[in-house]
Amino acid sequence: MENIRTSVLMAVAMLLAAACDKDDKMGVPAPVPTPTPQPITGTAPVSTEAGIEGNQVKWVQLWENGPKFAEMNVGADSAASYGDFFAWGETEPYYQQGDARKESPSWQAGKSSGYAWGSYRYCKGTEKTFTKYCNSVNSGNGGYSDKNTVLDFSDDAAYVCWGSNWRMPDANEMKALVDTNYTDGGTWIEDYHESGVAGMLFKGKPGTRFENNAVFLPAEGYRTDKGLTNKDKGIYWTGSLRNETAIAAWQVNFTSEKCNSGYFPRYSGLSVRPVLNQMISGTCSIRPEAGVTGHRAGWVQLWENGPRFALMNVGADSVAGYGDYFAFGETEPYYQPGNAQAESASWKSGKEAGYAWGSYPEPYPETDIANALWGENWRMPSSLEFDTLLNTDYTDGGTWIENYKGTGVNGYIFKGTAGTEYADNELFFPAASMRQGLYLNSLGGCGFYWSGTVRAQNDNYAYYMNFNRDYSETDYHDRCLGRAVRPVLK
Fold this sequence. Notes:
By secondary structure, the protein is of the alpha+beta class. It folds into two domains: about 40-100 and about 110-275, no CATH class; about 280-490, no CATH class. Helices cover about 10% and strands about 25% of the residues. Strands 1-2-3 form a three-stranded antiparallel sheet, with no helix packed on it. Strands 5-6-7 form a three-stranded antiparallel sheet, with no helix packed on it. A hairpin with a 6-residue loop joins strand 10 and strand 11.
C-alpha cells in the first residue's frame, strides 16, 4: 500500500510540475524579432545617356531615415570629377557639351545671354514674368501664379538626366547635410584622393552606424551671366523654391571656412547632386486648362518600380469624379461640355453618331490623351501596367467598393501588397462605365479605362482595363468607344 501511495504522489507531483511548466511558458511573451537594419550604402541604375561606366552609381546614407546621396554630380563621371551647371528647373546646361568649365563657352541656341533671365525657360525675360513655379501674382507673367514651389520630375535635372531612380534633394535634406545634428558638418579637403579637386567631405555623425559613411562634394564654383565664378566654392541646388519669392530657390554652399544654406536666383548655373528617388506618393503640376484646383494632381505608387498613377481621371476635379469619355487617340469628348454623364447627350458637330465608327476620324488618331490634356508630365498607362495593377503578385488585386468615402460613387480600390512599404497606398477608380454609340452604359456599375496601347494584330482595337463588382480584367475593343482615362506620371 505504501508503494502505491508513493507512486500516486509522484505521479501527481509530475503532473503539477508539467502544468506549472506549461503555465510558465504560456506566460512568457514570444521574443520580438530584431528588425534587420536597412542598407546604408548601395548602387542604383542611371540612364545610359548619363555616360557613366556600367550605368550604375554608388549611393550612401549619412543619417537615420535620411536621403541616399549619389557619389557624384550630374554631368560627372566619378566622385572627384566636376559636373555640369544647371539653372533651377532646367534639365540641360546652357553651354555646348564639354564647355562646362570654359571661361568663354559656346552657347546653346536661345541661350546666348548665358545664365541670365534672358535665357531662362520659365519667364519672359525678367523676374516679373514667370510662367511656372510662381507663388506671387506680382512676379507672374500677366498676373500668373500657380503656387508651385517644388520641382516636377520633368524639370528635375537629376530625374531627367539620370532616370527615374534619382531626383534632386529638397531644401530640408540639403540643410540637414550641413547640420551637425545629422552629420559631422563637413570637412574641407584640399586634394581629394590626389585628384587635384578640392571640396567638402561629409560623414555620418560619430557614434552612429553611419559614422564610416562619407560623401564628397567638389567645389565647382557656379555660372552667372556668361562667366564662371567662385571656383573655390561649392554651391548646389535643391528642388525647393523659396516660399517668400518666386525669384530664388534654395541651395547649400560651402568654402574652406564654412557651410551655409541660402537661396539664389533661379537663372544661376549651379551644381546638382542627386539622391535616390524613393518617393511613393506626391503631387505634380498639370495644365491650368485641365480645370483642377491648384493646377496639381496627386499620384501614388503601388509596387516597386511601378508607374505613379494619378489619383483622378482626366476631366474630373476630385478623386471620386467620373471625368470625361474619350475615343482612343481623340483629345476632345464627342458631346457638348457638361454632358459627360447625361443619358441623352447633346453632340458636337460631326459627332452625331456618338461613340461609333461614324464619328471616328481617319487616319486613326494616336495622340496620348493624358499628355495632351494634362501636360508634359503625364501619359496614359500601358496595357502591361494595367495587367500588373490587377496582378496579386504586385498589388492586392483590387476590391469593389460601394459609396466610396461617403461620395455615393462606386468603384474599384487598389492597395499596395501587405507587408511592403506600399501597403498604406491606395488608388480608387470610379465606376465611370463607358459610352457606346449614343448611350451611357450602367453608370456606377462598372468601369472602363483606356490604356495607351493599340492591339498589334488589328489597329481597329486598343487595350483597356474594366471591372465590376464580380470581376476585373484587361481586354481590347473598338477604339471609337468612349472610355475614361487615368494618367500616370511620365
